[in-house]
Design goal:
The chain has no helices and 16 strands. It has 187 residues and is an all-beta fold. It has 3 domains: 61 residues, SH3 type barrels (Roll); 61 residues, Nucleic acid-binding proteins (OB fold (Dihydrolipoamide Acetyltransferase, E2P), Beta Barrel), CATH 2.40.50; 57 residues, Nucleic acid-binding proteins (OB fold (Dihydrolipoamide Acetyltransferase, E2P), Beta Barrel), CATH 2.40.50.140. The strands form 3 sheets. Strands 1-6-2-3-4-5 form a 6-stranded antiparallel beta sheet, with no helix packed on it. A 5-stranded antiparallel beta sheet has the order 9-8-7-10-11, with no helix packed on it.
Length: 187
């Protein structure tokens, strides 16, 4: 068992029958009364962010979580299949554990958070940016670049991404995995 003195960014803990990791914290010592720790916790399973205050000295149930590198292979009716890069062992994960599954392309390297004691996967973290090729989009008209207009484009993973009018089919674009938004042309 850990206490509030052990709280740091990235620490995983069991709280309200779920596993959370600490995104941000602040130790507060008011002039009158007991000290406390204000925390921002993000759920590993749902991604929901909650704020909570712990009294100083409060014990917390620390959970050991390992981040392992996996490569995305394919998906079928059993789920999304990943292969461990070091051991070549395969793992099927359901869609709800992946933040933005539409952006997964074959061969993409991801990190899977695994509960160390139970050896069960908790969540799949995609890289911050993913480079995808545009497979289909309507052609942009010359002179339409004065405004910040966007059009729909289908990328190689099958996802729909809003892109600027100057992007054509066959170009590679950088997409932010958290939001699914266009960032820039890939070099």
């Amino acid at each position: 068992m850990a206490t509030t003195a052990d709280i740091k960014k990235g620490l995983c803990m069991e709280f309200n029958n779920d596993i959370y990791y600490i995104v941000d914290f602040q130790h507060v010592k008011p002039g009158k009364g007991n000290a406390f720790v204000r925390t921002k916790l993000k759920s590993v399973t749902t991604g929901k962010v909650v704020e909570n205050t712990f009294q100083s000295g409060h014990s917390i149930a620390e959970v050991r979580v390992e981040r392992r590198k996996f490569q995305y292979l394919y998906n079928d009716d059993m789920g999304y299949h990943f292969m461990n890069i070091e051991t070549f062992e395969q793992l099927a994960i359901e869609e709800s554990m992946i933040s933005n599954p539409k952006l997964l392309k074959e061969g993409l390297e991801v990190e899977i958070m695994i509960h160390a004691e139970l050896e069960t996967p908790l969540a799949v973290e995609l890289p911050q940016y993913i480079i995808l090729e545009v497979t289909y989009t309507e052609p942009g008209l010359k002179g339409d670049t004065a405004t910040n207009a966007l059009k729909s484009a289908t990328v190689e993973s099958g996802a729909e991404v809003k892109v600027p009018l100057f992007i054509d089919a066959g170009e590679k674009i950088k997409v932010e995995s958290a939001t699914g938004n266009y960032v820039e042309r890939a070099k």
